[in-house]
Amino acid sequence: MATTKASPKTKSAPKTVAKKNLSTKVVAPKKAAPKKAAVKKASTKKTADMSGFERYKMIEVAAYYMAEKNGFAGNAADYWIAAEVVINKKR
């Protein structure tokens, strides 16, 4: 039988393969936040927008507290007039 000589194996340099960079993420652009409804600010006018009933009740309460502070020792009409003056100044 005839034997054949095996040829010596030569080592070749390893092939370099370019790898994809998987660490970077693709980010979608941010969406604009929806606009919030404008908040209506309270009116700074105190008595200008009052109805007649609201004005009457404010005077009534103010007159009561004035009379209470004075021990209810006086005329109710005097307290009422003094309360009207105070409420009208707030306009």
List keywords for this structure.
35% helix; rod-shaped; 91 residues; single chain; 2 helices; mainly alpha
Quick take:
This protein is mostly helical and 91 residues long. Helix content is 35%, strand content 0%.
Description:
The protein has helices at 52-69, 76-89. It contains two helices and no strands. The mean pLDDT is 77. It has a domain at 52-89. The protein is mainly alpha-helical. The longest helix has 18 residues, at 52-69.
Mean pLDDT: 77
- DSSP strand count: 0
Q: What is the rounded Rg?
A: 46 Å
Roughly what percent helix? 25-40%
Structural class assignment: mainly alpha
Estimated share of beta-strand residues: under 5%
User: Main sheet, how many strands, which sense, barrel?
Assistant: none
What ranges have pLDDT less than 50 throughout 5 or more consecutive residues? Answer: none
The helix count comes to 2
Shape: rod-shaped
Q: How far is the N terminus from the C terminus?
A: 127 Å
Helices and strands, in order, run as: HH
Task: Itemize the secondary structure elements and their pairings.
Blueprint: H1 52-69, H2 76-89
Helix pairs in contact: 1-2
